[in-house]
């Protein structure tokens, strides 16, 4: 065995470091134990038990077997999965000063160049400063409220608007989307991605995108898919053995390095290129008002700002672009297979629209309070197929005790959002079925407070931005599709057709004014 390892220095070094790591793993204090876990193997622990896809299904089976806390030892790295809402609340909310950290993610942060992304920041001042810049523009009251400063373009961002104005921005998306759908319904996903990306690029950077195949939007999609693939702790060994990040790309077996070389370019470009485009426009005196210009103006007026505040602004802009270009898009994409799979839901939604809006105009955000059934569909989309089935893993900033259990410092903590959102105690019977009516019953929880947007102090800052009802016209067709595994779960390809329900509807869409608003 020893001579085998000596002939293979890379493997030998790994084995040696494993042994050292295992030897120095701190023990559990007397009188306490670690939460229950699947039987571990010597040294590698539960590494081979980790599911490679649809992780939440395995987590669900473990939850039935081991209970609300399931512990895993991944070669000396502790991880536990929280399977009940009550425990998630106890730890993420009540003990948030312990449970708001993130693990070191060498693959994402160092090898792939995602260190600028707020979701992967360690808990502390750097995270707080980035979060503050976002919070100023995204909290409920003043929140995200986009007001056009130029009526003609109707696209710039402001910082003090009202809910109605946020609605108008989303309305712009819906109207433009409907027009594109009438022309080429088969490109539904591409249209949504394009329109959402275009809107966010204009709002955040005042960038006008190309009407098709825009490089910023394509680059963002590639970055996010890479991040989703690498974002689950344990997917790449370098997260367990950070020293692996130093090995050169050409070393046989270093596939992660080869993948990362391609991904790194997308991820860095996603932050740098749009920001530099705005800076160029500022220098040329042609910049339109947007999130970046507004923040840079504030910065110029604040001589006591820290020297790296511009980087914080750049990163905050980049994270809005990242967060908004994919997440909302995929929730909207999920909506279509739902309408095909559940035609009765579609019919009820159309009936509600017909009653409230009638056939003479298009739906507007002012109609939202009168469309309760469509509101329940949005909640059910977030619940039924959560975009982040296991949220983003938190980590413990120090050790903790939960009843008889000891939780080591640095433990990776996964909220099993899928499990929580399918718990029949909270959401009523048949949680595997898409039943929006469940939200009409009193006492049913809101998915947004049950893991769909994450937990505690790290809860998604885009939560108020992410809601936006959509009306659509679907046609019944058999559908065959799957949701992907990984950090984000997207619907795969499926067949569908989208048609206007009447000639009048077609005419309304084609003649609608894209953006009506007072200045
Ligand atoms: C349907 C839409 C969305 C869903 C389902 C969603 C879901 C999530 C989830 C589950 C997390 C992890 C929270 C945790 O660690 O506990 C998260 C974090 C985050 N989201 Fe969203 N999100 C959405 C839209 C957005 C938008 C539009 C933005 C843009 C501002 C955004 C920005 C972020 C950021 C910056 C974080 C990291 C927060 C931190 O680590 O402190 N998200 N989101």
UniProtKB/TrEMBL annotation:
The keyword Nucleotidyltransferase does not apply. The keyword Zinc-finger does not apply. CDD domains: CYP64-like. Transmembrane segments: none annotated. Keywords: Heme, Iron, Metal-binding, Monooxygenase, Oxidoreductase. Pathway: Secondary metabolite biosynthesis. This is Cytochrome P450. One of its GO terms (molecular function) is heme binding. Heme binds at residue 460. Gene3D superfamilies: Cytochrome P450. Belongs to the cytochrome P450 family. Its cofactor is heme.
